[in-house]
Amino acid sequence: MTATDDLVERNRTWSAAQAPSDLPIQPRLHVAVVTCMDSRLDLFDVLGLAPGEAHVLRNAGGIVTDDVVRSLAISQRKLGTREVVLVHHTDCGMQKITDDGFRAELQAASGVAPSFAIETFTDLEEDVAQSVRRVRRSAFLLYPEAVRGFVHDVASHELREVVVPGRAERRERDLDRERGVSPVRLAAS
Ligand SMILES: [Zn+2]
């Protein structure tokens, strides 16, 4: 029995015990979450989500790739979401390999260098910030400024926000600086 056979069997048991669902296609909270594929990260538990509430996009690292932007564009323009939440996490597999190393491994194994970026990272917070900036700079989204980034601690289960000053906050901070006021509020947009 393969793992897939096991999952199909689990579905048979589970679906038989479920009431029919008539949830609408548009996520009720109008939010899309981008996160890592890590098996320890149960996003529905971490964010208290229920089916029908949010779009969930996952890949290795929770990276905002062109394909994630494709999904977010559909999510916002066709399915009514208005906010993006990014969740990266501690002890991520993408911190344990390097772009050059994995690229060389793929090339050695296949004879072809991949055309895609590997997108490993070393600094977790900086990678969240980078992902926030990618969403903000996307020309294809309706709400590019409505994005916040977080780190989920897989050991403690806590979520920590990575504040990335946006255009409005930067303007305010610059004005404060001119006025001689020290910045006390750096909320993410
Ligand atoms: Zn990960």
Automatic annotation (TrEMBL):
Under InterPro entries, the record lists: Carbonic_anhydrase (IPR001765), Carbonic_anhydrase_sf (IPR036874)
Q: How is the cofactor bound?
A: Binds 1 zinc ion per subunit.
- SMART domains hit by this protein: Pro_CA (SM00947)
- Under Enzyme Commission nomenclature, its number is 4.2.1.1
Molecular function terms, GO-annotated: carbonate dehydratase activity; zinc ion binding
| Residues annotated to bind Zn(2+) | C36, D38, H89, C92
CDD domains registered for this protein in UniProt? beta_CA_cladeD (cd03379)
Sorted UniProt keywords: Metal-binding, Zinc
One Pfam family name from the record? Pro_CA
Identify which cofactors the protein needs according to its UniProt entry: Zn(2+)
Reactions performed catalytically = hydrogencarbonate + H(+) = CO2 + H2O
Function per UniProt: Catalyzes the reversible hydration of carbon dioxide to form bicarbonate.
**Homology family:** Belongs to the beta-class carbonic anhydrase family.
What is the designated name of this protein?
Answer: carbonic anhydrase
